[in-house]
Amino acid sequence: MSAATSSDGTAIGCTRTGSGPALVLVDAATCHRAAGPMPALADALASRFTVYTYDRRGRGESGDTPPYAITREVEDLAAVIALAGGSAFVHGFSSGAVLALHAAAQGLPIRALSLLEPPYDESPAVDEELAAALTGLIGQGRRGDAVEHFQAAIGVPAELVAGMRRSPGWPALEALAHTLAYDLLITGTPVDLGAVRVPVLVVDSAGTDARLRAWADGVAARLPAAARRTLPGEWHGVAPEVLAPVLAEHFGQAE
């Protein structure tokens, strides 16, 4: 475990595992190094890459210096890439995939990129009604209700939301409730996809829904150099043992 220092002085907690070319994993909403799919994916990739997982701003062991801006999160990723040696492959999941697109479009030293189900459409716009609802719930101290409202609004199946709320990890999700507004801003702000000049692999799950699949198709179609894959999986998720060899193949082609 170590920490990178972002441009505004914010400490960004990160973990390194494995050996080989540097690969940075960028988490989705409500996820960080201790909660989410990235630790298992890092283990699955560690025989081939030096894998860096990190806590996005406002999560886990990372700071959250105000005011928030997407640029700050791009700078956080830049700090992790610098810690990794100055350039890296990058894989992003969900809102983390869209953050990775923002970073690549702004010219970060990303050698190649992979995206798992980026929630980004042709006419992105921040959902102001959802943002206001989340702000109101958090202001009332109802952080758990804010997380549940967000999950329902983005299409998480009701049975999955109910299972999350009953799980031992629910308090950790409540602690991240204020960062949901960050993800709404990231996914609702336009990205110049034409400026993403590195090879990109866009992946979705065979078990996902039509909206997420359409978003993946749309992103892949508008990128200058994109490949498109559908892998066996569940709603908005592909198991690490299925995803890892596909990512290794994609990044291996870019070495």
From TrEMBL:
It comes from Saccharothrix espanaensis (strain ATCC 51144 / DSM 44229 / JCM 9112 / NBRC 15066 / NRRL 15764). Residues 38-238 form the AB hydrolase-1 domain. InterPro entries: AB_hydrolase_1, AB_hydrolase_fold. The keyword Zinc-finger does not apply. Keywords: Hydrolase. GO terms for molecular function: hydrolase activity. This is Alpha/beta hydrolase fold-1 domain-containing protein. The keyword Ligase does not apply. Signal peptide: none annotated.
